[in-house]
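Please, structure for the following, as tokens.
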Amino acid sequence: MNQQPFLRPFTAPAALCAFAFVAAMAAVLQYSLRAYVPGSLDPGGFTLANFADLLKPLYARVFLDTVWICALTAAATLVVGYPLAYALVRVENAVAKSALLVIVVTPLFLGEVVRTYSWIIVLGNNGFINSVLRGLGLIDQPVQFMFTTFGVVVALVHVTLPVMVIMLAAGLSHIDRDYLRAAESLGAGPIRVFLTVTLPLSMPGVIAGVTTAFAWTFSAFATPQLIGGGRVNMISNLVYQLGFASFNFPFAATLCVAGLALTIAVLFLLRLAAKPLENIESH
């Protein structure tokens, strides 16, 4: 007698999605090994020249810029998100907790284009920030926020902040309050309790949040496209330019494969770097 009669029907949609994903990735990998034929949408024969072209300074620079922007975004999101997650877990007032939760989660319900367009209004030369600075007499000429790495990182932090706060809040909520009370009973002040108890024990949430923010930012397209304005390019923007502007589908596929491999490598290195922090948490 079958003990799990609904297992196959329930897992069938997920299995089909997994099969479609694997088929799509196989097609991308196959395209990455084909030669580009100028003036034709059909690829040429098999070659490894596309991967050799990745070493050209132009493309290597985009890869390095992407990793740098992802690292800055993950670090900035952690700095902004940790106090919010801490307040979300520790605040006792139900109204205040609900208000915090709404503020944190609301960006998830907005489209990426809508969020990015709002940042164009805020960061533009005649936007909110420059208008306030000029109104206060702090500047005579507008500060250039648009088309800079700073502007792209600020907008990406807004995109990744909800996920970071949710993961940090999950890690903080699992900390046993008895540990905090024990530290306080031994004479530790609030800052020492946080640095020696709360922060080490919240490392699983920190690691999960940072790695997720990094991986999520790596595939960002609309934000660097609109805020960067072509002066700040990430891998996804380069894939778009080569695939849909130049119709060089083989090299665009090569960039996708290289980007995926780089993401896996960086996340693996982050995992190795986080090992000592996990050991602290386990003790």
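The mean pLDDT is 87. The longest helix spans residues 57-90.
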